[in-house]
């Protein structure tokens, strides 16, 4: 199987870039299943029903989220009704899917969304339970549903926390990939017990920006130490993703490669 995983979609230009790239990559790379992190797709902050439907229509099979789950208040009542959308499973004060099973061409794909607690801000730290304990619970749920593969989106800031989770899940899941920092890391690997790993998939969003934020806004924030309203940059976007290839017999990952377009 060939599984495509796309890094955080940021803003309108990121959504457009996703559409254009999936149209080419899915047939060319013979992709069987696609996971997209859409937590910045609505003008850089959260996701709306509009972006959820667009991303699925472009070829995504599952959409993961992250720390911007609180930004779109109108989505709070919708999260649990959208069967291809995942919220971090260890968030304790919102209802939604922490894991889902998608059956496609007689293969059952399990997807888990987890959020880190290190350096993620007060709201997340107060409302997120231990991700290591929670991911075990979600894996057990998926095993009871006899899934063929399990993939984990670990939405976290600290690279050490992500690396620790990678080693913790080695052999328990098919692949674990980090999201959130919007910068693709060059440490993709197959871990000792057959789990594909990367610290961060990267970003599908505006190139001429500070991780999606307008440069002048980001510069003012860092230079002055003051808050300036978030403004998503909307120039030409890059596309960051990974492709995990699995052995159809052992169901283990055999390769992982980065894509940067």
Coarse morphology:
globular
Topology as H/E string? Answer: EEHEHEEEHHEHEEEEHEE
Proportion in β-strands: 15-25%
Q: How far apart are the termini? A: 22 Å
Q: What's the helix count?
A: 6
Q: Which residues form runs of ≥5 with pLDDT under 50?
A: none
Major beta sheet, strand line-up: 5-6-7-8-10-9
Average pLDDT value? 97
Counted up, domains total 1
Tell me about the largest β-sheet.
Answer: 6 strands, mixed
Q: Which architecture would the CATH scheme give at its second level?
A: 4-Layer Sandwich
Oligomeric state of the chains present here:
single chain
Instruction: Report the CATH superfamily.
Output: Metallo-dependent phosphatases
Helix content: 25-40%
Broad CATH class: Alpha Beta
Q: Whole-number radius of gyration? A: 17 Å
**What structural class do helix, strand and pairing data support?**
alpha/beta
What is the CATH topology descriptor?
A: Purple Acid Phosphatase, chain A, domain 2
Q: What is the tally of beta strands?
A: 13
